Amino acid sequence: MTTSQKTALITGANKGIGMETARRLAALGTTVLIGARSAERGEAAAEELRGEGADVRFVLLDVTDEISVRTAAQHIDATFGRLDILVNNAGIAAGPQAPSEVSAATVRQVYETNVFGVIAVTHAMLPLLRRSAAARIVNMSSELGSLAHMADPGSPWSAYTSILLPYCSSKSALNAITVLYANELRGEGILVNAVSPGYCATDLNRHSGIRTAEEGAAVAVDLATVGEDGPTGAFLTEDGPIPW
Ligand SMILES: NC(=O)c1ccc[n+]([C@@H]2O[C@H](COP(=O)([O-])OP(=O)(O)OC[C@H]3O[C@@H](n4cnc5c(N)ncnc54)[C@H](OP(=O)(O)O)[C@@H]3O)[C@@H](O)[C@H]2O)c1
């Protein structure tokens, strides 16, 4: 690896939008670390991408397990000494259920991955990102996390937001976290953004989405590779900013 070679870690990259983000970043010449909570699924994904000529390695990483997160950071430190790109992609949903039917336990479970997992991984990887000349953090959010959409009864997303309290509110929290990290890290040249990939057909929604995972990955790759004059603390689709 040359010192100019960039290294990216993508959480939940063994399938779906995370794996397509890995494929696209690798095609740009980035060394990509496939974070996955299953060694079998992670190795299989890395093997598939290596078969396409990509420089891709598997890293065992369950974002809800502090020891797993710490061990992954130690491994990346020992192998690469720094990290240039972090894509917090791993995510889960629960439901459908009316908001009044949802238990705190269900919300807590979703937040463990979608919110606390992002904080744990970002906290562990920041020392490595700070060693990069131009670090980028991309948080995989969703338009379903937009408070503006949730507050609009005529929103085209209301059919989803009205039955997905754990998921939607977890992505609102993720958006807030994104802005707060961006504010702190702006002065260090670390750009932090939340992206929405659009409604993509993946296991998350039993393949009901209308876009491909590859199309969804495009905005994450754009922000992962954006120049120093790019946005930070923004909430973006590939067509531009989304209302918070
Ligand atoms: N699909 C959409 O329409 C859509 C729209 C907006 C936003 N998003 C967001 O995009 C991201 C990727 O979703 P997707 O649609 O590609 O879904 P997916 O195909 O279900 O992929 C989710 C990935 O997250 C991983 N994951 C779940 N919990 C994890 C944990 N504790 N530790 C590590 N990895 C974990 C899964 O691993 P396993 O294989 O082990 O389960 C899988 O690799 C999510 O954050 C999602 O909220 C998706």
Automatic annotation (TrEMBL):
GO molecular function: oxidoreductase activity, acting on the CH-OH group of donors, NAD or NADP as acceptor
Pfam families found in the cross-reference section: adh_short
Signal peptide coordinates: none
UniProt keyword NADP, yes or no: yes
Keywords: NADP, Oxidoreductase
Membership in a protein family: Belongs to the short-chain dehydrogenases/reductases (SDR) family.
Full protein name: Dehydrogenase
Originating organism: Kitasatospora aureofaciens
